[in-house]
Amino acid sequence: MSPKGKTWNYPFGSVSLRLGKSGKESWHIYYRTNGTRVRKVVRLAQSRMDALNVLQVEVADAFRGRHGFRTTEKLVIFSDFADQYYENYAKINKESAVTDWYMLRKLKARMGNYELRQINPLAIETFRRGLLEKGRAKSTTNRYLALLGKIMNLAIDWGLLSENPVRKVKFFSEKGNLRERVLTSDEEGALLNCCPPYLLPIVLTALHTGMRRGEILGLRWNQVDLSKRIIRLENTKSGKPRLIPVSSFLIEVLIEQKQKSGTSEYVFPNPGRRRPFQNIKRSLNFAAKKAGIQGLRFHDLRHTFASRLVDAGVDLIAVRELLGHHSVKMTERYTHSNAEQKRLAVECLRPSQPPEAVPNTSEKPKTVAATEVFAVN
Asked: Residue 160: which of 224, 88, 238 has the closest Cα?
């Protein structure tokens, strides 16, 4: 197979296997309808036969539509399909599957009894309005819409739908939503002292690795090498595996957690269920409130990790790799300069020897001396 992949041609279209820059394989289909070339990626295809089956369905649907036949869509209840999505896709392909499970509960509560084809833009707008009325942020509603859109795309790939209604709903703008919230040393100490025993190692892992909430809650022991002090994340948000070195401090925390977790395959199991926590937002909010910290989000722990690395002089390339970002530009959003750094930055402008003062005459307007410009109060 060539570095770029391989293509199989059929009388009604073609199937193509492509290799991304990371070496990840993806299957694509190509065909023509009414003189228009259609190109699609078959997201869940694992083999040429999987992609070929989708190609045949697509071509047959296009033929029926072109000749006036009604495209048939299987009657599937959203609640049932959401369960299929979670079991057959999210749990296998996403480290953030736990987050999906929590969000799916909301989606199923609102649209669980709908047939897939009954979910239209109006139903989606109504669901979103309900989230806003309950105080959800616009960025949060975007996450729900993104998940719903992903589910509908899979329904199309699996031959259950012909179009995605989420594409007709405009997402809210999130410009200016970035919050540069970094814990101070005092805030960190207060937060850790207020965390219950089950939450403390989770917060420490976030502060010392920068891992996302879903990555931590879904972390399994087979991803942790205590001897080599490495955590390996396979199915990440960026789609690329990520190796995270574990500090000497955190390795002690994990060794102790290994004893507490017992026979569970998960690093941080719910003590009562031995399964991953579905959500720790309430626990974190309670601990933060008790510590006197306002408006703390779990993601702020990741931001604190990244900002402290930059403050310590770690180059952005290394920080990018630890966070799993596609580009340094994205990593720059997590950097900041605190007040002391800014003061030191302007302090370096002070000249080693002040220049001579400019004479003040009545013929000329008063000139401010350079020493006054660079002086720091």
From this structure: 88
